């Protein structure tokens, strides 16, 4: 059995400075070719303050602070027995180079399937910018193979 | 850059433009590991992947999701995306080339925003779904 007491646990806030070099590397790694992700002038021409972070970059902000591993550590589960099952993003505002993003992660739900062979861990993460404005909400589903 | 697609021009059931992505290779996985902060060796090191019970290195699930995201941002400006979710249904491996597809499932208006819901997925060259989910975009 898993520790039901973890449901509702909120981890200490984390923060990341979003650097333009990192955004360019991320855009390159996903094969992006649109100049708005590389060229500041193109980004501004498209109405952005600076280079924008691509849609899935918010998960990297959480990864950078090891957030997906915290609940596994609490459960004493080796990360090699876990897989990322689902990911969702709800967007409120742009994340751009130069932003400092702060996040908070909370364990939303945990349940077992297949007679306890699989443990599903659902966490919510809220990201805000340097002006305390919400930028993106994440929901992450991690699946752990038991035994 | 993405065109400005208009709400009035969208019909439920219509497909959005497919996006064929280049073949995933080890260099892309190394770049993505560094860029995304996911340094799990199962994406980089054949020995480590095999020790973990895998046939070999596998691509990051979040890389496949990022490719789906590229289909969306080719179709509409990124700012129009309100929601984007995906389930990781199968593994992509080096040598796979993903094609991203999406279909409009609903049009609705909420708080003065005109929203279009989509079912989206990425499949490999054998038609196997690697990642599948939903997106909602707000259109003018």
- N-to-C span of chain B: 17 Å
Largest sheet composition of chain B:
5 strands, antiparallel
What share of residues of chain A is helical?
10-25%
H/E element order of chain A: EHHHHEEEE
Largest sheet, spatial ordering of strands of chain A: 1-3-4-5-2
Structural class of chain A: alpha+beta
Biggest sheet strand order of chain B reads 1-3-4-5-2
Question: The biggest beta sheet of chain A, please?
Answer: 5 strands, antiparallel
Structural Rg of chain B: 17 Å
pLDDT averaged over residues of chain B? 95
Helix content of chain B: 10-25%
Figure out the total of helices of chain B: 3
Oligomer: heterodimer
Specify which chain pair forms the largest interface: A-B, 35 and 38 residues
Low-pLDDT windows of residues of chain A: none
Q: What is the overall shape of chain B?
A: elongated
Our measurement of the CA-to-CA distance between the termini of chain A, rounded to an integer number of angstroms, reads 11 Å
Number of strands of chain B: 5
Q: Which features characterize this protein?
A:
heterodimer; A: 147 residues; alpha+beta; 4 helices; 5 strands; 22% helix; B: alpha+beta; 23% helix
Would you write up a description of this structure?
The complex is a heterodimer of chains A (147) and B (140). By secondary structure, chain A is an alpha+beta fold. Chain A has helices spanning 20-29, 40-45, 57-64, 67-75, and strands at 14-17, 82-91, 100-113, 118-128, 134-145. Chain A has a five-stranded antiparallel sheet with strand order 1-3-4-5-2. The relative contact order of chain A is 0.23. Chain B is of the alpha+beta class and 140 residues long. The longest helix of chain B has 15 residues, at 61-75. The interface between A and B is large, with 35 and 38 residues.
């Amino acid at each position: 059995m898993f520790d039901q007491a973890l449901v509702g646990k909120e981890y200490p806030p984390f923060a990341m400075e979003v650097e333009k070099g990192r955004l360019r590397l991320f855009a390159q790694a996903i094969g992006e070719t649109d100049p708005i992700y590389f060229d500041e002038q193109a980004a501004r021409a498209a109405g952005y303050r600076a280079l924008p972070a691509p849609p899935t970059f918010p998960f990297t902000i959480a990864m950078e602070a090891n957030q997906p591993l915290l609940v596994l550590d609490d459960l004493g589960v080796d990360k090699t027995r876990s897989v990322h099952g689902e990911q969702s993003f709800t967007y409120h505002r742009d994340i751009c180079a130069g932003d400092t993003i702060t996040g908070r992660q909370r364990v939303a739900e945990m349940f077992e399937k297949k007679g306890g062979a699989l443990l599903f861990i659902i966490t919510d993460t809220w990201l805000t910018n340097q002006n305390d404005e919400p930028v993106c909400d994440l929901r992450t589903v991690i699946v752990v193979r038991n035994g | 850059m993405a065109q400005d697609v208009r709400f009035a021009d969208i019909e439920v059931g219509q497909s959005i433009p497919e996006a064929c992505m280049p073949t995933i290779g080890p260099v892309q996985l190394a770049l993505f590991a560094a860029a995304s902060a996911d340094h799990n060796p199962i994406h980089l090191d054949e020995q480590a992947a095999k020790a973990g019970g895998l046939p070999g290195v596998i691509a990051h699930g979040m890389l496949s999701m990022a490719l789906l995201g590229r289909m969306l941002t080719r179709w509409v400006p990124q700012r129009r995306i309100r929601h984007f979710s995906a389930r990781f249904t199968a593994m992509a491996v080096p040598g796979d080339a993903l094609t991203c597809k999406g279909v409009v499932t609903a049009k609705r208006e909420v708080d003065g925003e005109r929203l279009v819901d989509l079912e989206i997925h990425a499949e490999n060259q054998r038609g196997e779904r690697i990642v599948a989910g939903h997106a909602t975009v707000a259109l003018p």
